[in-house]
Amino acid sequence: PVARDHMTEGDTVSGAARALLFLAMCSLLGVVVDSSTPPDAAGMGLYPLGLLAVVLLQVKKQSRPWVAVTAVVFTQLTLWQLGMSLPLSFAFAISGVAAAWLALLLLRPAGGTAQMRTERDLLRVAIAVVAGGGVGALSAGFVGALTGVEQVMALLLGTFVDQIASLVLWLPWLLLDHDAPSLARWQERVTQW
Predict the structure, then answer these.
(1) Whether the Cβ atoms of residue 49 and residue 1 lie closer than 8 Å to each other
(2) 3-state secondary structure string across 11-44
(3) pLDDT tens profile 52-67
(4) Interval 122-143: pLDDT, tens
(5) Are 94 and 72 in contact (CB under 8 A)?
(6) Is 6 left (phi over 0), alpha (psi -120 to 50) or beta?
C-alpha cells in the first residue's frame, strides 16, 4: 500500500472536507469514549490523537499548516469541554498534531510516498510510532509538571502508551487506498489459502 499524498488541484476541496470529517470523527470518538468511562478513568487517555495523522494527510502539503492549526484548535476545545484543564488540553492538542506531523515525515523515505512493502518500511512505521509517542509524552509530562499534576510519571507513561496505541491504530489508514501487486506466485497463494 502507498499513502494518499498525490492529490491534484481538483482534490483540494474534497481533501479539506475529508480532513474536517476526520476531525469531527476524532472529537466524536473522544466524546463517546469519555461519556462511557467512569469518572476516575475519564480524560485524554482515551482520545484518538493518532487520527490527527490521517487528518493531516487528507490535504495537499501547502494546506497542511492551516489544517494543523485547525486540528489544534478543534482538539483543544474538545479536550477542554471534556473537563481537561486549559493548559493541559492545549499541550495535548499541540503535541498530538506535532506527533502526527512527525510520524508523517518519518513515514516518507526522502520525501517519497509512505509504503508498507519491505522490512525497512515496517521499521520506518515503528520509528514513526515511537517518535510520535515520545513527542506526546514529553510535552504532556512537561506541561503536567508545570501545572502541578500530582503523578507526572503516570501522565508521561500513560500519554506515551496512548499515543503509540493511537498511531498504531490509525496510521494504517494512510497506507490503504492502493492495491499492492502480489509478490507470491499463484502456487504460493493457493498454498496460503
Answers:
(1) no
(2) HHHHHHHHHHHHHHHHHHHHHHHHHCCCHHHCCH
(3) 877 887 777 788 888 8
(4) 888 889 889 988 988 898 888 8
(5) yes
(6) alpha
Q: Which residue has the cell 480524560?
A: 43
Cβ atoms of 115 and 1 closer than 8 Å: yes
143 is written with which cell numbers? 506541561
Helices assigned H by DSSP within 58-118: 64-81, 86-107
> Residue 2: helix, strand or coil by DSSP?
strand
Whether 78 and 30 have beta carbons less than 8 Å apart is answered as yes
Collapsed DSSP state (helix, strand, coil) of residue 115: strand
Contacts of 17 (CB under 8 A, 6+ apart): none
Joined together, the cell numbers standing for residue 67 give 489544517
Of residues 101, 10, 14, the one with CA closest to residue 53: 101
Residue showing cell 509478490? 183
What would the grid cell of residue 163 be?
499515543
Q: Which of 136, 123, 139 is nearest to 167 (CA)?
A: 136
Residues 6+ apart with CB under 8 A from 28: none
- Rounded Cα–Cα distance for residues 158 and 24 (Å): 24
Grid coordinates belonging to 169: 491504530
